[in-house]
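ok trying this again, last paste got cut off
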Amino acid sequence: IRCTVVGAGGITHLRRIADLASLYQVRTGCHGATDLSPVTMGAALHFDSWVPNFGIQEYMRHTEETDAVFPHDYRFEDGYLFCGETPGHGVDIDEELAARYPYQRAYLPVTRLEDGTMWNW
């Protein structure tokens, strides 16, 4: 099952998807592209460390600027991703630094319609 924590509707929803997949011996593979923040990666890593049918975690490094705005203690070493020891998802935000990068609306596909129903874009 390849999806993201945010695209699935959060950790609880992703957990339900993984539970159903495990009934059919299907493993997980969380999406980890750079269009997702280090916060999402931190959440995915903690999900991965829990899920019994873990398969693989996709990972692409973020830019130095992104890592500076979102300091985190997870690390990539010798082909493996390691969760950090910081409570929560192990990711913080430098709000002063973030203010230097004003929000620019992006038009990415959505997975839910306005009424909340799931939608396959």
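PB: full thing came through this time. Residues 38-50 form the longest helix (13 residues).
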